[in-house]
Amino acid sequence: MAYRTEHPDPQFRRESYECLNGEWEFEIGSAERKTNLPLSSVIEVPFCPESKLSGIGVTDFISDCIYSRIITVTEEDLRQRLVLHCGAVDHRATVYLNGIKICSHVGGYTPFEAELNSAAKAGENRLTIAVHDDTRERILSGKQSGKRESFGCFYTRTTGIWQTVWLERTPRKYVRSFRFYPDETSGVLEAEIETEGAGTLSVRVFFEGREVGRAEGETVFRKRFRIPLSERHLWEVGNGRLYDVEIAFGEDKVYSYFGLRSVRYEGYRFLLNGKSVFQRFVLDQGYYPDGIYTAPSVQNLKEDIALSRSLGFNGTRLHQKLFEPRYLYECDKAGHMVWGEYASWGICYDSLKELGGFLAEWREALERDFNHPCIVQWCPLNETWENLDDRAKTRDIRFVEAVYAFTKTLDGTRPCVDVSGGYHGRYTDLFDFHCYHSSEEIAKYLKAIEERGELIMDTIYAAEPERDAVYNGALPLNASEYGGVAFSPNGGAAGLSATAPCVQEKSAWGYRASASEEEFVKEYIGATKRFLECGLISGFCYTQLYDVEQEQNGFYNYRRKPKLSEEAMQKIAACNRTTAEIEKGTEPKQEYILPGYEDKEKIRPANAG
What we know:
Blueprint: E1 18-19, E2 22-28, E3 41-45, E4 64-73, H1 75-79, E5 81-86, E6 89-90, E7 92-97, E8 100-106, E9 112-115, E10 123-132, E11 160-161, E12 165-170, E13 174-183, E14 188-207, E15 210-228, E16 243-249, E17 252-258, E18 263-266, E19 269-272, E20 275-276, E21 279-284, H2 298-310, E22 315-318, H3 325-334, E23 337-341, H4 355-369, E24 375-379, E25 381-382, E26 386-387, E27 390-394, H5 397-410, E28 419-420, E29 431-435, H6 439-452, E30 455-457, E31 469-471, E32 477-483, E33 485-486, E34 512-513, H7 517-533, E35 537-543, H8 566-576
Parallel strand pairs: 21-22, 21-35, 22-23, 23-24, 25-28, 29-32, 32-35, 33-34
Antiparallel strand pairs: 1-12, 2-3, 2-4, 4-10, 5-9, 5-12, 6-11, 7-8, 7-10, 13-14, 14-15, 14-16, 16-17, 18-19, 19-20, 26-27, 30-31
Helix pairs in contact: 2-3, 4-5, 6-7, 7-8
């Protein structure tokens, strides 16, 4: 069976695409003296060797491995640019062609390319990719387990290639990159395009096959066009309405798309195209039973979005992983909002020594995903209040502040929450918090917000009050993680009450547990209604859409089968679709500004340092 042969990134597509997914030669171990030799076993790319679909299925630590295959190169290829693209290789990858080193790349979640012409020859060529990856070395690894086995909310590791690998042929003068800046109020697209070389550059915009705008001009390196659109179709929740784009530069032609929309916060409200929209989000960690980080097919990606929408959610928080561009494309088409997050766990925050490495990877993520209309907010970091495995070291607040400033410099078109959960730095567009408490406890916190503009939240760890996140009353609010209630109709966490902790690290982990479907639904509706009814809350994110390995707090199990009855699911969906208090009316909600915080551009949360 051929897996994942579709184009991986419709945001940047050329007709010369040649998919290299499929059978590769493979070995576990160092690439020393094997950069131009056949290997002893085979693997199915793009699935990691820990996965069942790879044909390997080794879940122990794999610190080094090697991939190799033969590619055929023509004389015409040698006259053009022959480029290898890797969607994602975890963590450090080195590319060789015919034993000659071409390039290295560090970062297990971001794409890279390698121009092969310097080592290519007409006929058969051996392409080799050597990988080093070890979560014990303090690298950005998200939810990948640092232990031999999975535990708690850490899961099976992903080593090596886990996204599509492909070849492209381009002219020597070619389109390097582009950014789209759509203006939904005026119906205008501004397009900034970078090229390699000088020449004539043209842009054509289509909607459902009809040309609705075009521009042309001479360029040297960079050109910015302003393109009025003859038809105005907004990107909205539940309706993507994408415009297609064709960019031509000499003999090079690239196809892309964009959505016409704007996003911002005003007062406490999140605005999509100037209209208050409550973010009804659910957590999605992007894991698959047989592929781990990699979905077996595009259909799996579509189905996860459909499952979310069927429960009344209008968006997804993509958690501790940079999701593949094809998933974002499906969200773009569906009008499904997402937060763009990174796999920030795994490194130290107690000093600035690892800041550069994070920013290098995060920059590549921002550049890859800038044009996706579904991304309505950046969320680079998650729960950085301490190093997760060393409670004696508190992280350096400058790390958080530098990441926020860096993000806003690269993209000023979207809001950014500096860090989700726990402490915030001095600069953030949103104060969000994690709350894995009961609905009754949530009500107490929200009452304090409404009456005093104050939130003192002990987040996940109720036993450690020094981790409290203190809200100053001036910023928009979002409950970006809540729920986390473990429930299994076939046992597991069943039998525990809704107030009991559920910390079965290797069997049925959750923040709390529910003993019955009736109890689960009652608690869900109780907590969710409290957020919807609070006029100062702009959104929530429930943990989570489906179980992942031992973590059993999803609506669906790991195979995406419902754990609740149809009646229960309908009750949950109806609750989620209730109009939120903050969506009513058009005037911004009253803001609570504490003394010393009148200038919102210089807000410093009380807990910032």
